[in-house]
Amino acid sequence: MKQHEIRCHYYSQEDLLGAGCLDINMAIEAVEMAMHAFHAGEVIFPEKVVQIFNEETQERINCLPATFKHLRVCGVKWVSVFPPNPVKFGMQNLSAVIILSEIEHGLPIAFMEGTLCSNLRVGAVGALAAKHLAKPAARSIGFIGAGEQAKMHLLAMKTVFPSLVECRVAAKEQAEEATFCQEMRQLLPDVAITGTNTDLQAATQDADIIVTATSAQAPLLKAAWMKPGAFYSHVGGFEDEFAVAHQADKIVCDDWETVKHRTQTLSRMHQAGELPDDRVYGNLQEIVLGDLPGRQSLDERIYFNAVGLAYLDVAIAHAMYQRTLDSGLGQDLKIQQEMIFEHAHLKNWIRI
């Protein structure tokens, strides 16, 4: 390799899957590591850059950087969220890529598909919260929403709760429920997975774990459906009526200061003066680090809201990179062979 040659690895989604990166335990361990590192001051985590192209539909592209000083790696997630895509174009509403660079010389080391990592982070954080906050040996889970994040949540919850044997799902269309059931039954044959013909109450009532993962902006989940002892993982923006949070014994966020400035149910409540800061029990990091206890009784209703912290995506992406590095998968990319003015034929290429 020439002195000024720069190379990095490219990994497609299929490369990452082939290397075994759809590993919930790996993702949870990366999240726990990241939380400890953040607490120790080892993480640089700037504000994300948001470009919204349509205020009504919230079509947007976000740029989210983070650095782990002790790992000597900097990463950025470039993620697009276009909620109308599934209905208008029959395609996914979220796509992402991730770039990792080392911070000794500042050179890129990996460019990878990021949708897998992004969805895996959502599921892993929800499952980690459930590990600490859901009822032990939970047996049933109910979903409102049947998309990619709901599917990832089911895989993640089953990983931390092997006791899960029943899953009910409600979506906007019966066809979405049918696809969810067909795909997830193949992956989790020991779980009874059924659609509810778009009946939200039937999907969630009496479930030990409830997950809402939709692009809707409506109070879909009702407080009356959440039984004592239930754990609720709120994935999207506005998905439940205020009474769900009002009746919760504990409200936990990934980061309350971030959540309250967004468009989640909890932030709407806070802005309306219905949810003071002291009503929020704490952040998941405090529970993972042992600074706060998690579930303290079998009858507690617990509400968890994760807005998404990109430094966790970078941590998972780095774990994926480490696992994939020696797999023989992916492509070697040449970024440059020489510095600009070292090229022998530069005179032939320049335009003045």
Walk me through what this model shows.
The structure is a single chain. With 352 residues, the chain is of the alpha/beta class. It folds into two domains: 6-117 and 310-349, 2-Layer Sandwich (ornithine cyclodeaminase, domain 1), CATH 3.30.1780; 133-305, NAD(P)-binding Rossmann-like Domain (Rossmann fold, 3-Layer(aba) Sandwich). The protein is 34% helix and 27% strand. The protein is built from 13 helices and 18 strands. It has helices at 13-18, 24-39, 85-89, 115-133, 148-160, 174-187, 200-204, 242-247, 256-259, 265-271, 284-288, 310-325, 346-349; strands spanning 6-11, 43-44, 49-54, 59-68, 73-81, 94-102, 108-113, 140-144, 166-170, 192-195, 209-212, 217-221, 231-234, 238-240, 250-253, 282-283, 302-305, 331-336. Strands 1, 2, 3, 4, 5, 6, 7 and 18 form an eight-stranded mixed β-sheet that branches. An eight-stranded parallel β-sheet has the order 10-9-8-11-13-17-15-16. A two-stranded parallel ribbon has the order 12-14. α2 packs across α4 (115-133), α2 packs across α12 and α4 (115-133) crosses α5. The two termini are 31 Å apart. InterPro entries: NAD(P)-bd_dom_sf, ODC_Mu_crystall, ODC_N.
Summed up:
The protein is of the alpha/beta class and 352 residues long.
